[in-house]
Amino acid sequence: MRKKEDLFLLVFVSLLFTACQKELPVATNDYKTLGSSAHDLLSSAIYTSLHIEINYMQGYEPDNNSLTGLKTFLQRYLNKPAGIQILLNEIAPAGKTTLTLNDIITLEKKNRVEFTTGNTIAVHILITDADYIDPGNLAMSYWNTSICLLGKSIYANAGNSSQASRTTLITALLEHEFGHLLGLVGQGSPEQRPHRAVMNGFHCSNPNCLMYFAIETNPASNIIPSFDDDCLADLKANGSK
């Protein structure tokens, strides 16, 4: 749930869903365990480019600043000499007020068209017009190349005078969830020294780190936390720039 303070908004992101689906995937390189493609995303050993497919529902299109922020963030850490491309597409409404993980998976499988193939690794981001069944969750990463943002919940937690801007919150959530795709913390990118907060899933123990279990943003400055030194060391050891 939420906890408001005078200067900060604490946003609790989802605990991770790590189970693979039993049915056959559309593409053999996607729909795998969260964090299992960390090295492939970070390095250029196999995949030299990244395609990010963002399927959003009406009213929840991410703005240019969020997209630019995400791309700049990824260019800082990923070795993708052939470039990073972001593809946007509006899709039909969810048709429900709340979604389960299975609902989210169904929506992804119905709408996703970009998959990992050749020299290109693909990531799918779904932005819904519904809340998650657990209203404390604003975003989640659940497969090796899959992220979901709960647009309705995000909008309810951003944009007011005591809250971070929508752009800042969306960007922070995208960066945090990409951190999980990159194997943090201890799920695909091995820890160079222990720093996982065991009681909070696969998250960093440092409250000032982007990978802390709650994202802390200052509404006065809209500053997004960065990876701390331990997370940076994990990424570097697994192929990051």
Overview of this protein structure:
Helices cover 25% and strands 21% of the residues. It has 241 residues and is α/β, with parallel strands linked by helices. The chain has one domain (3-237): Collagenase (Catalytic Domain) (3-Layer(aba) Sandwich), CATH 3.40.390. The strands form three sheets. It has a five-stranded mixed sheet with strand order 4-3-6-9-8, sandwiched between helices. The termini are far apart. The model is unreliable at 1-25 (pLDDT under 50).
Q: Brief description of this entry?
A:
This protein has 241 residues and is α/β, with parallel strands linked by helices.
Descriptors:
241 residues, alpha/beta, Collagenase (Catalytic Domain), five-stranded mixed β-sheet, three-stranded antiparallel β-sheet, 10 strands, 25% helix, globular, disordered N terminus
